[in-house]
Amino acid sequence: MTDNFLEPQSLGVPCPRCQKELQLKKGRFGLFVGCSGYPDCDYMTSADFDPGTDVSCPECGTGKLVQKTSRFGHSFYACDHFPDCKFSVPLPPVAESCPDCAYPILLRKKTTAGERYICGNSECDYKSKIR
């Protein structure tokens, strides 16, 4: 990047919608990748776009959980089929089922004592031993 990082920076990657070049841009919520053909093409994604966590969404079953950032700067994990599926969890998901209730995902929780897995189902109180 150049010294003036407020100017859009070309990435040399074609837009998946219109095949124009993608650019790294700065908006009011931080950096993002957007199409150079804006406003004709409004494609955009986050600058640190992660293709996913390889954890399937337990609600819709077809989507994957991806990391997103709220408008307040907090990370969360949500289904990539939003707005059709509105499933989200506040902690990193793990593709293991709960031994107590068989819910398809566990959540990785870090504490001062160590790391443990908790059930993603709010009605289940499963917690693994501290690792």
UniProtKB/TrEMBL annotation:
Keyword annotations of the record: DNA-binding
PANTHER family per the UniProt record, alphabetical: DNA TOPOISOMERASE, DNA TOPOISOMERASE, TYPE IA, CORE
SUPFAM superfamilies referenced in this protein's UniProt entry, alphabetically: Zinc beta-ribbon
GO function term, MF aspect, one: DNA binding
Source species of the chain: Pseudidiomarina terrestris
GO biological process: DNA topological change
Protein's name in the database: Topoisomerase DNA-binding C4 zinc finger domain-containing protein
Database matches in InterPro entries: Topo_IA, Topo_IA_Znf
GO CC annotation: chromosome
